[in-house]
Structure formats: C-alpha cells, structure tokens
Amino acid sequence: MRRSGVRVLSLALLMATPLALGACGSLIAPRPFALSRAHFDEVSPLREAGVDRFLPWAEDEAEIIVVDKPTRELALYRHGKLVKSYPVVLGRSPGRKIFEGDRRTPSGLYHVTAKRPHPKYDRFLDLDYPNDGDVTQYRSALTGGLIPAVLGRRRGTGGLVGIHGSDKEDFNRLGINWTFGCVSLANHDVEELYDQITPGTPVLIRDDQQP
User: Fold this and answer.
1) HSE of 14 in the Cβ direction (CA atoms, 13 Å)?
2) What's the pTM value of the predicted model, to 2 decimals?
3) Could you give the dihedral angle defined by the CA atoms of residues 7, 206, 122 and 23, in that order, rounded to the nearest 10 degrees?
4) Residues forming a β-bridge with 85
5) Please, are residues 209 and 41 in contact by the beta-carbon 8 Å criterion?
6) Considering its fold, how many domains does the chain have in total?
7) Who has the most CB within 10 Å: 2, 46, 117, 153?
8) How does pLDDT run across 27-53, given as a tens digit for each residue?
9) SS3 content of the chain, % helix, strand, coil (to 5)
C-alpha cells in the first residue's frame, strides 16, 4: 500500500479479516478501509462532463482507478488527472454486494493486491474486498436475518472480487451486466489497463448510495 495516498485519501485501517472465497478470482487477504461521502461525489463523471476531470485529493497518487457504477465507467487517473476511461459491466444483480453469491458488485475503497494472467478472463486485478464498510453491512444483514443459508451454513461476505477481462465480449459490447460481482472490461481494454497498474493502486468503486 502507498503511504502517500493514505494521508490524502483520509484512509483508516480498521481491522483484519480472514481470507475469503467468492466471486471470480483467487484467495486474497482483504484489508478494509473507510472513505468519506465527499470523495464519492467528486469522482462522478456526470458532474465532470465536458470539462477536464481532475481529483485534487488524488494529486499524490501515481495512479488511482475509479469505477462509477451508475454510468458503468472505469477511469484511470494519474496524479489526479484523468488519463483514460473504459466502459465496464458489473455484477448481474443491482445494488451493493452484501454476501457471497449475491452476484452484486461491491462499493467502496479497495486496493489492487495482485495482477496476473487469467485462463478465462484474460487479465485479472485482485481487489482487497471486503473492506470495513462491507463487513459492517454484512453483520447488520446477518443480525437482521437477511443472509441466506446453504446446506445449513450461512453465506459469508464473499471474496475473489477483481477487475478482469471477459469470456462474453458480446455481452460487454452490449452493456449487459453478467459477472458474479467483478468489474469486467473488454479484453483489449483490460490488457491496456493491466500494463499500467501496479499492486497497491487504490480502486474507488462508487454508487449513488455510498458510503
């Protein structure tokens, strides 16, 4: 993790969570963080249409990825300035991810923990899901009896969430959400992004209901 971005993004390391198994990738060791409402509002491409897009709070970050769920856009910023944006598709169910198998894409601040070629999805950038907000939301849903059980076992928060390519590129071109919770790009786009990203890169996934 980069130390410079921790201060600028006002991140707080809250708790360690166990290895999680879930959506699209491999086992990861998630590291949860918190983020303010203002950061989610400032990165909306709807607010920045027609002007140079700049994130002053990300000036000290070599790279930061912003995924905007309402517009289904992934934007790469370098030192706060927009470098390039890509269309994406998301989990096939709407809303913020709550539990393993709900087929929703999470919302919050994450980091790339690893990058690797993938036999099915071309390239894969692992994310440190779940974060503190995900864990809090899950516990609240669990207390409220909203987490389904499978074979007598309550589903966990899930994991294996990342940014990857596609084995359904026709769906990507048509803008059809098909993943189990990951963020999917066209293969030529994820290859381009993959070459520019290093582990530790912050990834902000925003929606209209965050945080």
Assistant:
1) 16
2) 0.78
3) 100
4) 75
5) no
6) 1
7) 2
8) 333 333 345 544 545 554 444 444 578
9) 20, 25, 55
CATH of the domain at 37: 2.40.440.10
Cis peptide before 211 (omega within 30 of 0): yes
For residue 211, tell me if it sits in a domain: no
User: What's the rounded Cα separation, in Å, for the pair 88 and 113?
Assistant: 20
Q: Residue 76's CB: how many other CB atoms inside 10 A?
A: 18
Check: CB of residue 93 under 8 Å from CB of residue 23. Answer: no
In the chain, the amino acid numbered 209 is Q
Instruction: Tell whether 99 is covered by a domain.
Output: yes
Tokens of 144: 């409220």
pLDDT per residue over 96-143, tens digit each?
Answer: 999 999 999 999 999 999 999 999 999 999 999 999 999 999 999 999
The number of residues making up the chain comes to: 211
Asked whether 19 and 67 are in contact (CB, 8 A), the reply is no
Q: How far is the C-alpha of 100 from the C-alpha of 156, rounded, in Å?
A: 6
Tokens of 146: 């909203």
CA distance 44 to 56: 14
DSSP state of 57: G
Domain that holds residue 150: 3-206
Query: Would you state the structure tokens that stand for residue 175, as one six-digit string?
Result: 């803008």
Cβ atoms 202, 110 nearer than 8 A: yes
